[in-house]
Design goal:
single chain, 108 residues, mainly alpha, two-stranded antiparallel ribbon, 6 helices, 49% helix, 6% strand
């Protein structure tokens, strides 16, 4: 496996990593462009889950329309509200690198 060094913290990372595990700096063309096209904001997802979570807005934003539709379908009950609060806490406790791997990288 080929290794390279991070442009920010100078630690060794794999050549196919999009972000550094140590300092979370973008690598490769994403760093040159300034933004990853699949980028989603962890803070915005958390705020959507708090403000509009009963309607599944955070699920639609994160690219999960099936669960977003279920939240919207059952919004008249309190179940999506409780789940949205749980999702907000989960998003708040998630590390930025873990959020990036889970919601921003498109796995083919």
């Amino acid at each position: 496996m080929t290794q390279t060094t991070c442009s920010q913290c100078r630690s060794d990372i794999s050549l196919n990593q999009a972000i550094c595990e140590h300092c979370y700096a973008a690598q490769g063309l994403e760093a040159l462009a300034g933004m990853d096209p699949n980028w989603r904001s962890q803070r915005l997802a958390r705020r959507l889950s708090l403000w509009l979570g009963s309607f599944g807005a955070h699920k639609f934003y994160l690219g999960d329309p099936l669960r977003g539709s279920l939240y919207l379908l059952f919004c008249w009950t309190l179940v999506p509200t409780v789940l949205a609060i749980r999702d907000s806490v989960h998003l708040a406790r998630m590390a930025p690198a873990q959020f990036y791997r889970r919601w921003c990288l498109k796995l083919a």
